[in-house]
Structure formats: C-alpha cells, structure tokens
Design a protein that fits this description.
166 residues; 6 helices; 37% helix
Length: 166
C-alpha cells in the first residue's frame, strides 16, 4: 500500500532488526515506489501479555498511536516458551486479547479500520558447541509448541503467518 506504515512489536528477534536493517532494506528494494515507513517498537523482554515500560512511558503521547501503523509485524512466543507446554493455552488466549486490544487502540489512519497483523513464529534455538550451554533439544521442543500456537492463532483469525522456526 502506498505510504504504508509498518511497525515491528515483540521480543529480541524484532529488536535485533535495528542492528542490521536487512529486512527493512529488502522491503524498500522490493517495493521502491510504495514509500513504506517502518518503525521498530520491539523490546527484548516483551511478551504478548507483558510489555515492560516505565510508569510514565506514555505521559506525553503513546508512540504507537503517534506513529499510526497500518500493519503490525508481531514477534511473540520465544520468551513465553519458557513456560513450557503448560503455558501454551494461556499464550494463545493472551495473543487473541493482544490482537483485539491493538485493533481497538490503533486503528488505521486512513479508514479507521483495524490494522493488519502479520504473526511471526519464534525462531529455533541454535545449539552451541560450548559444553556449559544447553544443546537446545528441550528449548526447541517448547519453541515448536509456541510456533504452532502462533500459527493456530493466525489461522483462526485469517492473518498472515511467517514460520521462522522451520
């Protein structure tokens, strides 16, 4: 969409995009005439139901509201995966609430319709050769559950889903 405002929200994976800019560069090179505007609001500790901010974070204005996003790329599931199998249903419920809340809080500027959402799965844990670090087997079992849960929420809501786990 010409002039589309794209925002990244979520955990460390999206936050790391600020270091390299490959994804944003690819977007602009793929759609050079669209005049896309991209901002990154992701933070390492963010979870779908927990976004830690100082008490007066929105004292002047809400940065997401001020930006007026058309499309949210949502990166959740990695931090939540530490809850294991027991946390999956809560994660899905929290994701549904997040989508409902953000649709109401941040309508699109041009139409006042709900923004578009792209749900991105957590990435797999990469094993290290360091004997003092985990091999990733248990971590990946949990991450797979949360990648699948993200896919289920996306399918239920008819939203775009990006599988970065596999």
């Amino acid at each position: 969409i010409k002039g589309e405002r794209i925002v990244f929200v979520g955990n460390s994976l999206a936050e790391h995009f600020t270091k390299y800019g490959y994804f944003e560069s690819m977007l602009h090179s793929r759609f050079p005439r669209e005049g896309l505007i991209v901002r990154n609001f992701a933070r390492p500790a963010d979870e779908v139901a927990t976004r830690q901010r100082s008490a007066n974070y929105t004292a002047l204005d809400d940065p997401l509201a001020a930006f007026g996003a058309d499309t949210f790329f949502c990166f959740f599931g990695y931090n939540e995966s530490f809850a294991g199998r027991e946390g999956v249903e809560k994660f899905k419920k929290d994701y549904e609430k997040f989508l409902d809340d953000y649709a109401k809080l941040y309508p699109r500027d041009d139409t006042k319709a709900a923004p578009r959402f792209v749900l991105v799965s957590p990435i797999a844990f990469e094993a290290s050769t360091d004997k003092f670090l985990p091999d990733g087997k248990k971590e990946n079992e949990n991450l797979w559950l949360y990648a699948e849960a993200t896919a289920e929420v996306a399918k239920k809501r008819n939203l775009a889903f990006v599988d970065l786990f596999t």
